[in-house]
Design goal:
Elements lengths: L8 H18 L3 E3 L10 H4 L11 H18 L11 E3 L14 H13 L3 H23 L3 E3 L4 H13 L6 H5 L2 E2 L6 E3 L7 H10 L20 H15 L3 H5 L1
Parallel strand pairs: 3-5
Antiparallel strand pairs: 1-2, 4-5
Helix pairs in contact: 6-9
Length: about 250
């Protein structure tokens, strides 16, 4: 996401190399994907089926299976099944490979898409939408049935009030709950939602857990902050004087 967050190519390569080093140190398999890859997904994958139930429609499933099969056929020559440009490492042995960024044309296309969005709130929503679609498609391609995300109690509380302000109250249960199973074959779970951001920061500090901090989305001159940022400032400001604010909202 470095391109839309205002990072240069050198800064993106540095962040990517650091992320690879941290992930390799865990000993677990990991998969790195660039936000530009979300633009390569077929439109039918980004739209759920028209069925009345919560299950994805047949056209959606066919699109997902067809896309995965196509990527597997294209990856046969390389011995892999990854999305285009997807960085992966299934074994922790050896030094991390050199960072590889998407083509400049793809990055420019992504930047033009974000520049065409008029408001900061809409850009935040677009970023979240592209991110979740790319994560879900990567999980499907790799054969994972569950995805764990790292939202803390603080982030969940901010998201709850933000969704209310955006008129999305009907989806609060799945947007902020422990389990989000509206995506059909991939379940999203939030195991960190019981811990506040300050607790996580203290744990990382005392146990020397390295972190990578992503910069916020840049705003244009004289442009008002997004609803997401306003809610974050509001809740964190109250939390300083009233320590039970986050837990009460949550």
């Amino acid at each position: 996401e470095g391109a839309v967050r205002g990072q240069s190519a050198a800064q993106r390569e540095q962040s990517l190399a650091r992320m690879k080093t941290l992930l390799q140190a865990t000993g677990f398999p990991y998969h790195l994907a660039h936000l530009e890859q979300a633009l390569e997904l077929p439109a039918s994958i980004l739209r759920p089926g028209l069925g009345g139930s919560g299950e994805p429609g047949p056209s959606y499933k066919e699109a997902v299976e067809g896309f995965i099969q196509q990527q597997r056929q294209e990856g046969d020559g390389d011995g892999g099944t990854s999305l285009p440009g997807l960085g992966t490492r299934d074994t922790p042995a050896g030094p991390p490979a050199a960072p590889h960024l998407p083509a400049a044309a793809q990055t420019q296309e992504l930047l033009r898409l974000f520049e065409a969005v008029e408001t900061p709130t809409a850009r935040e929503e677009l970023l979240q939408m592209l991110r979740i679609h790319l994560i879900l498609q990567t999980a499907r391609t790799r054969g994972y049935a569950k995805v764990m995300t790292g939202e803390s109690c603080t982030r969940v509380a901010i998201k709850l009030l933000t969704n209310l302000a955006l008129g999305r109250g009907a989806f609060l249960a799945v947007d902020t709950g422990f389990v989000d199973n509206r995506h059909g074959d991939v379940m999203v779970v939030r195991p960190m939602r019981e811990y506040m951001a300050k607790e996580i920061a203290f744990y990382n500090h005392f146990f020397d857990v390295p972190t990578v901090i992503a910069p916020p989305l840049p705003t244009k001159r004289r442009e008002k902050p997004s609803i997401h940022r306003l809610m974050e400032r509001f809740l964190l400001g109250l939390q300083e004087d009233f320590p039970s604010t986050i837990s009460t909202v949550y």
